[in-house]
Every structure is written in structure tokens, then in C-alpha cells.
Amino acid sequence: MNTLKQLAFLPRIMSASLRGLPQFIIIGAQKGGSSALYKFLCEHPQVQRAFVKEPHYFTGQFHQKSLKWYKAQFPLSKSGIITGEASPSYCTHPLAPQRIKSVVPQAKLIFIVRNPVERAVSNYFHSVRYGVEPLPIEEAMQRPAEIFEAEYAKMEREDGYHSSTYHRHAYLHKGLYAFHLNKWYQHFEPQQILLLENAELLNQPQKVYNEVLQFLQLEAFAPAAFSKHNVGSTKPVDESLTRQLKQVFEEPNRQFFHLISREFPW
């Protein structure tokens, strides 16, 4: 944190006792539409945005910061106004559910999923843009699953461990939605987690938005305009790779649909 940011942050952390914890958290998925949804929510007159959309407080890399630091990410408490954050790394971090349960047990959680094939491809090109993916997409998608299973297990076993390998390259493991959602169901009742789908937000934004407002018990509202947000430059991929990825996710998708008693056209 540079000097100017430190000076700006100082009054916030000194007044942390006057700042509330988030009433809602968008937990992911990465490249699933959390940025757009958060933007739309923060346009609501009863919602104040966090100073940092993605504080990542409950993941291994940042969790060692104090609770006072976390509260300083949010505005001063106001009657009738709620606040929240959106850190898509939460949904796939094995310790995030129990950490959130211990700090903000009443927070309402929003999990927005996306066709896991599209999500994996988008995640790959995101890593390419940030210069952390040297492999062609076909090779990147063929990294052994055991690598990411081991990294996931280490994150679960070692409090504070941050896996750059998992964060940057676990394109397929992050799309195992049933596996990850079951972790959350171990700590939260299903009615505390709102599940949304990216394509529905894209094609029927007001309908999905209304569902979120009802979940958060907010008054009816329509943003000025629903627009695409944080859209990456995903390139077309070979159809044979798409078919392979569909096969990879066929059984995980079936398990996910069974878990949520609902199906998406993936």
C-alpha cells in the first residue's frame, strides 16, 4: 500500500468500530458474473458499496489481517442501508465457509454460476491476459487434476496457505460446483445461499435482479441500465476442445443439478 493509500485508509481503520460488517457477500464463481451483479446491486439506494469490491479477507492470502482491517473496507453504518462485498475466490476456497460463518454468520450469500466450459475458457484467457499462463489452451486444460486436488487439500490443511497454482490454473476444478457448494452447505442452510446463473442474469437481468432484491429484503428498484461489466477478451476455441470439456463436466454437472434440484442448459 503506497503512502497516499495509507493516509486515506488510516481514518477508516481508526473508525472501524462505527463500521458494520457486510450483510451480503457474493462468493463467486470466478468469471461467473459477480462483478456485474455487484455493480447493479450498488446502484440500489439502500446499498452502499465497499471501498474494495474484492477484499479476499476469508481466503488464505489475506485472512491474517485483523477484523478491524476488514471492517475498514466498509462504509459507516447507516440505518436502513446495507453493504456487501464480492470476492469470487471465496466459493472455491475450502476454509472460506467456516471463516465467514465465524465472523458474519447471518450474512446472505450469493453464488452465481456459469456454464463450466465457458467459465473455464474465460478463466484461461484471464490468466493469459495477466501473464501467468504460458501454455496453449489445449495443454493448459490437460494439466493433471491431481495437481489441483493436492493444492486444494493443502489450502484446507494449512491455515493461511495461498496457492498461486490453484488460483491461476485450476480452470476445471473451479467448475465442480456440487463439490464446492457442498462445502458451503456444511456451514450454512440452503436458504441462506441464493444460487443464480450467469446466462439468466445476461438474458433476463431485471427478473434475476428482482430475485436478488427479494432475497436481500430490499425495495423494488430498476437500475438505469443493465450493461455488461468486466467482460474479458475470450477468443474462439476449437470445437474438439469444447466437446472434450463438455465430457469432463458431464458427470459433475449431473451431480450439481441433483444437488440443487434444478437444471441449466449446459
Descriptive notes:
Strands 2-3-1-4-5 form a five-stranded parallel beta sheet. The longest helix has 22 residues. The chain has twelve helices and five strands. Strand 2, helix 3 and strand 3 form a beta-alpha-beta unit. The mean pLDDT is 94. The protein is globular, with a radius of gyration of 19 Å. Helix 9 runs parallel beside helix 12. It is of the alpha/beta class and 266 residues long. It has a domain of 176 residues: Rossmann fold (3-Layer(aba) Sandwich). The chain starts with a helix and ends in a 6-residue tail after the last helix.
Let me know the number of strands: 5
Write the CATH architecture name of the domain at 26-117 and 177-260: 3-Layer(aba) Sandwich
Number of helical segments with 4 or more residues = 12
CATH superfamily of the domain at 26-117 and 177-260, by name, is P-loop containing nucleotide triphosphate hydrolases
Instruction: Let me know the largest β-sheet.
Output: 5 strands, parallel
Query: Per DSSP, what share of the residues sits in E-state strands of 2 or more residues?
Result: 5-15%
Structural class: alpha/beta
Topology of helices and strands:
Elements: H1 3-14, E1 24-28, H2 34-42, E2 47-49, H3 67-71, E3 82-86, H4 96-103, E4 108-113, H5 116-129, H6 137-140, H7 145-157, H8 164-169, H9 177-185, E5 193-197, H10 198-203, H11 205-215, H12 239-260
Parallel strand pairs: 1-3, 1-4, 2-3, 4-5
